[in-house]
């Protein structure tokens, strides 16, 4: 093509780009959102252990929470409410949750205080002006969240032990494989290099009476009663300490009270590897996931395919989401967190869309407030949203940015995954 012809072609193309869109293009049909199911973890809670118990592992005293161990904090209630307000505005803009329709959303929570109160915070914001009702079961255990104690499924402790052992092998070798993670957390907790810590915890030392993570014995065997698995290791201890630090930071504890100011969002992200590794062994083992999340997976398929409110919120725990993720082979990574981490208030969101071509599909994503959004109670808007990542559903999701998963195919995936439960 000659130079003049090329210039004429470019000029014509630029003119076409400058023309206003045709009316029929502006009013072109669009995909339509029909239903949403939000499987969320409870919000920020108090540590499960006392400050005195936690302080055995740290150079500085541990901050206390204003509520009993394991309870949702006042700060946590506010953070959950901010997420609820974001859901309301986001889905109202997409045609769901019309003002004044108190039947447009339903919140169902597990029995502990932290899940019920998280549900109440969400319900108040999803349906302002309506009673903030949170459904719970009247039995001792909810089959959606605790199917084994509820009698909905049966767990064979010996098979479960074998399944975990088959993934991590000898507990001592598993601990050794993650030695760097344990030593990094011990440095953060005690503010000393591994070679110096041992001398400093001896009588007369700067840290006399403190305990070393590296001294925790490693064992993997069958537990007793509800604690069917005994997985003891430095990683398991580090896991609980890390989660307690995350909760304290997210709850807005003064930085000076968090290990003398050594705790930052970046430090917690690195330390979170211990928690993620421990939960992976306990909850992402396929046999355990099938027993622990089978009823929930089938319930989600029913909600998405059958009749249900426009928005359904199920409030559980990090284990609830991780068991389901293992069952359906779901993964995600959010900035500032470990792979597959489930921060306070985070959620797996399943949306049912009717596409322009008439096909009904599910679009999944994982969403969470960042640690600093939690800590500072940052308002969530479309301009300043929570973190979010699309989730691919193996055996169902199609190629493309939305990773569309046909609704009926999702039901088959859920049913196939729970076979042999």
Automatic annotation (TrEMBL):
Gene3D superfamilies referenced in this protein's UniProt entry, alphabetically: Phosphoglycerate mutase-like
Which named protein is this?
4-phytase/acid phosphatase
Q: What keywords would UniProt list here? A: Signal
Entry keyword annotation includes Signal: yes
**Signal peptide as annotated in the record:** 1-25
**What Pfam families does the database record attribute to this sequence?**
His_Phos_2
The record, for SUPFAM superfamilies, names: Phosphoglycerate mutase-like (SSF53254)
Entries under InterPro entries matching the protein: His_Pase_clade-2 (IPR000560), His_PPase_superfam (IPR029033)
Species, as recorded: Nitrospirillum amazonense
